[in-house]
Amino acid sequence: MTAFSAARARPARDDLFLSDVLEGLSRPDKSLPCKYFYDAEGSALFDAICTLDEYYPTRTETALLHARAAEIAGLAGRGATLVELGSGSSVKVRILLDALDAPALYVPVDISRDHLIAAAARLAGDYPAVTVVPVAADYARGFALPRGVAPERTMAFFPGSTIGNFRPAEAVAFLQGLGRRLGAGARLLIGVDLRKDPAVLEAAYNDAQGVTAAFNLNLLARINRELGGTFELERFAHLARYDAARGRIEMHLRSLDDQTVRIAGHPVHFARGETIHTENSYKYSVPGFRRLAARAGWRTERSWTDDDRLFSLHWMVRQG
């Protein structure tokens, strides 16, 4: 019998979305939290991004997971609890579930409730021996694990180099909080994008088909749908560029002219050329990321990269 529970999946609060949007757009340098990309439409667009020729991270990380799955399973041990942060469509985790020795529990954590429940139900049907408990939450703000989860049996999975969306100091704080939540002895498998030729990086975020642009603009469309926004999407343009000094890709939405938009009745003015900063994606060296994780209380036991050194996986253990 399939063990599946949606009891922990609770809808996100619209008032929090509204307050975050208004706060971000009231700043001198306007910004929006990238976590709000992932409504149903945004999640589907991100799934499409992951199939693009220019977007190397997904296929490279997937190949690394296939190549190292048996080694990872040996490190995880029998009967592991697998907690995935930002689970999305729960595609990569299947590589681990296929390799792990009798995994007991899978806890996908994602902010997009409907997408989460649908993906969790599909996975529960395909892995009837694994109890699946989805948690609809912003994992950066914290979430509750099911009762009785033993830290030494727990393995967190944080793929996709999503850690790069945090500024380095924020990444340290996030990893510290995750360690406290999981407990001493918990393990973490994390995907981290590596520094490389800026042309390769910029192509990955400016694909020829315009899927990433649609993904970026969908954030404004979501504000229109859910918060009574009046954004005219054709008056904004997608912009992605690499900042070599900071080691990060920045995504922005640029206003194409002077305009005033209303959000739940609140006016927000944009000057021509002004941008909304929607996402950062930091890139690291392998030693650099290991040092960052150590500051947060995680000891790196293994690091793996592909032959072209585009992407890395790290196996870490939470210190006491």
Q: What report would you give on this structure?
A:
- The protein is α/β, with parallel strands linked by helices.
- It has a domain at 56-196 and 284-318: Rossmann fold.
- 35% of the residues lie in helices and 24% in strands.
- The protein is built from 9 helices and 13 strands.
- It has helices spanning 14-25, 40-49, 56-76, 93-99, 113-126, 168-182, 198-204, 211-227, 286-295; strands spanning 81-85, 105-110, 131-132, 135-136, 154-158, 187-193, 236-243, 248-255, 259-263, 266-270, 275-282, 298-305, 311-318.
- Strands 1, 2, 3, 4, 5, 6, 12 and 13 form an 8-stranded mixed beta sheet that branches.
- Strand 12 (298-305) and strand 13 (311-318) form a beta hairpin.
- The chain starts with 13 loop residues before the first helix and ends with a strand.
- Residues 9-13 have low confidence and may be disordered.
- One of its GO terms (biological process) is methylation.
- It is an enzyme of class 2 (transferase).
- Keywords: Methyltransferase, Transferase.
Q: Per DSSP, what share of the residues sits in E-state strands of 2 or more residues?
A: 15-25%
Give the CATH architecture of the domain at 56-196 and 284-318.
3-Layer(aba) Sandwich
Distance between the termini: 37 Å
- Fold-level CATH name of the domain at 56-196 and 284-318: Rossmann fold
Number of strands: 13
